[in-house]
Specification:
16 strands, five-stranded mixed sheet, alpha+beta, eight-stranded mixed sheet
């Protein structure tokens, strides 16, 4: 017997049943996907699907060469044929925008797009943080005003309501202003950090000259007082940026969406400007951020397109479903409506024909395969969770009848085959 090969650490199998270290099931995931499809459609967003492998330069240019994502976490390799440097995508926005620019989707037409799929980062695996993780992303391209910022935030709040977890999430917002305002603030911030360099940890010292805003987002308790006293970006914003931010807040107030202003909220990627936001929870331990996003008005131009105001967000499916599984509500129906049993010569073919007829009426039918006693098959029907068992024996086959057993009430009836659907529907309604 060959040696067993295990999955790569931090990359999980999605099974019909919960695993010891990974509680999410395929049925829960599928139910979530159905909710997402209906939710995005209700807001007029169209789906886009992109490859999981892209040229490394796409992420260097969009996310930033000095970020931890590009510098430490990407899975990068050389293509053996043409020596291109390729990477597994660490996030979805860059791939989405690359496709938009490449296929000229913004020609005289703004776009509202969404996507869902796996992303890859080489991080230390822990609950809610995996090396292969999955995201739903929503991108609104070609819209400059704060109204679409408010719509995206309201859209995310609507999803929390649909999943029954709204009360467990807190919205945090901030404005990063425009490029010139951030440059001015950056200079003041670096000067401030240099005055406190003796207390900075190694991560903060490294980030001080590459991405100083991230120093303010430190989780190190010893640096909190220093971070609180740092120059605030909001104090460097001009009237146009402040007006955008004020209007967004007014719209959120009008929509009844509560929020917390967090001047230290900066997000982890370089391309954000103006509005940034996160939805956080206290129910997942260290992995507090479930959803985050913001504006990236200069990114499409950076990727070779025309200047286009844009905003988007992404949510982590694993983290979100862990929250839903424990506190929310998501209808998961993985059991068949009818479990079909059969015994006797030729009855398996008859059972399959009856099953096909019932499936055409919209029912989910599980047909038993193999030769077992009816008693053994009934045990499997009970354990399947099906509400109704259909029994095809030699007598039923000869008489062109079907025996139905209600596995909840234990009522049993033999009816003409053409009447089976009507009785099944009556029992399902009861």
């Amino acid at each position: 017997m060959g040696q067993k090969i295990q999955a790569v650490k931090g990359m999980n199998d999605l099974l019909p049943v919960a695993q010891k270290d990974f509680k999410l099931t395929a049925a829960l995931w599928q139910a979530f996907e159905e909710v997402v499809a209906a939710w995005t459609k209700s807001y007029g967003y169209s789906q886009i699907r992109t490859p999981i492998v892209e040229q490394t330069g796409l992420f260097v240019r969009s996310i930033g060469e000095e970020t931890d994502v590009v510098g430490k976490e990407m899975y990068t390799f050389a293509d053996s044929n043409d020596k291109l440097s390729l990477s597994l995508r660490p996030e979805g926005t860059a791939s989405c925008l690359r496709a938009v620019v490449e296929h000229n989707l913004l020609y005289n037409n703004a776009q509202k797009l969404w996507y869902m799929g796996p992303m890859f980062r080489r991080e230390r695996p822990q609950k809610g943080r995996y090396r292969q993780f999955h995201q739903v992303g929503v991108e609104a391209l070609g819209f400059a005003g704060p109204d679409v910022d408010a719509e995206l935030i309201a859209m995310s709040a609507d999803l929390w309501n649909r999943l029954g977890i709204r009360q467990y999430l807190t919205l945090e917002i901030n404005s990063l202003g425009n490029k010139e305002e951030r440059i001015t603030h950056r200079a003041a911030l670096v000067d401030y950090l240099q005055q406190h360099v003796d207390i900075l940890d190694e991560d903060s010292k490294r980030r001080m000259h590459t991405n100083p805003l991230r120093v303010l987002d430190t989780k190190n308790p010893a640096l909190q007082t220093m971070a609180e006293g740092a120059p605030r970006l909001v104090d460097f914003l001009g009237e146009e940026s402040l007006s955008h931010y004020r209007t967004l807040k007014a719209m959120l107030d009008g929509l009844g969406i509560a929020y917390v202003e967090n001047p230290r909220l900066v997000r982890g990627l370089d391309y954000y400007n103006l509005t940034v936001f996160e939805w956080t929870t206290e129910k997942l331990g260290a992995q507090a951020t479930v959803c985050g996003g913001g504006r990236y008005n200069g990114l499409i131009e950076e990727l070779g397109g025309k200047p286009t105001p844009s905003i988007g967000f992404a949510l982590g499916i694993e983290r979100l479903l862990l929250l839903v599984q424990e506190f929310g509500q998501l209808a998961v129906n993985e059991v068949p409506d009818v479990y079909v049993l059969h015994q006797g010569e030729g009855t398996s073919l008859t059972a399959m024909k009856h099953a096909a007829s019932l499936r055409a009426s919209g029912l989910n039918i599980y047909v038993h395969c193999g030769d077992q006693s009816l008693k053994a098959q009934l045990k499997k029907a009970d354990s399947s969770g099906a509400a109704i068992a259909m029994i095809i024996g030699e007598q039923e086959q000869s008489d062109e009848t079907i025996t139905l057993k209600n596995l909840r009430s234990h009522e049993q009836k033999t009816v003409e085959a053409k009447m089976a659907l009507s009785l099944i529907q009556d029992w399902k309604k009861a």
